Amino acid sequence: MKEVFITRVAKYLPNNPVSIDEMETYLGFINGKPSRAKKIVLRNNGIKTRYYALNKEGNITHNNAQLAAEAVRSLFDKSFKEDDIELLACGTSYPDQIMPSHAIMVHGYLGGRPLETYSPMGNCCSGMHALKIGYMSILSENTSNAVIVGSELCSPMLQAKNYEEEAKKIGEMDENPILAFEKDFLRWMLSDGSGAFLLEDKPAEKGLSLKIEWVDSISFANEVETCMYAASDKDENGNLISFKQMEPKAIADNSVMAMKQDVKLLDQNISQLAARALKGICKKRNFDVKEVSYVLPHLSSEFFRNKIAEELIKCNLDIPQEKWFTNLTSVGNIGAASVFVMVEEIINSGKLNIGDKLLLAVPESARFSYSYALLTVC
């Protein structure tokens, strides 16, 4: 089999960084009142600045496919152009439309020649699933290169206007209405942006490359109910009910299209299943975490940092936190794009040396799935 290398990396973070004090200027006030959950959530997640593809008037400046295309364009130069892409795989949590597929729309913005595209569905792991598609395509000699993208456009879904009908309904029943925490929680967690990799069957002629040793994913949906969801709702038994089964008025009245998260379920499972997933992968790959130079963990919140570290220690997988490379506090939680942006930042940080091993770690709380990849600097 051929070897596969990440030879170019790029990111695109739209507009100017948004401070925590500015967030409601962009997202708006539900029922005309400041969020009660905001301070609690921001204190725990540790995010100081983030990026929105919105202006202060609440208008979208880039759609999701455009964000992805901007990151891809940053990979191009005289020696690699649109027409040189052989495969395009794009992962995201919430595309601009249900159909056509996300990667098709990104291809439309990029132009160039006809090419093979893939749009893995999912949440945070979808970018890693796209990475595996490109990795396996080159390994199997289906293509000699692949462009892989992770992107997110969450901010429009978090704007107050999306909750107005539900807020009116709550207001009619309660003199002191407040949006359910599982909805308000995510308004202060998520950010916009994109990142892209160029994968090739040989290292770059200049600069550092990252050899992909393996990419593995595992789902625990057989054991745990849905935790993060959109375009659906949960019944009293934890079953997910699709918007297709609902009346249009019920969809608006209950903000069904908005993203929701069961915070208790998240806290009970996300850390211990992350350690369990990694333990299984280490056994499968005969890999010892002591070999890791840096781990790049996609943290949704700093709240989970120590919890994850404790679970890793319990499983004899201790990776000292001085080896953790994160950028959550400065760019926010960009979902499927987070790991791409972390790789771009560390490869340009001056920290890496030939032979260093990077462990990419991406948890996905939607129904608890995890993706890990091992890269070697060369």
Automatic annotation (TrEMBL):
Pfam families: ACP_syn_III_C (PF08541). Keywords: Acyltransferase, Transferase. Residues 282-361 form the Beta-ketoacyl-[acyl-carrier-protein] synthase III C-terminal domain. GO terms for biological process: secondary metabolite biosynthetic process. Gene3D superfamilies: 3.40.47.10. GO terms for molecular function: acyltransferase activity. InterPro entries: ACP_syn_III_C, Thiolase-like. NCBIfam families: PRK06816.1. This is 3-oxoacyl-ACP synthase. It comes from Sporocytophaga myxococcoides.
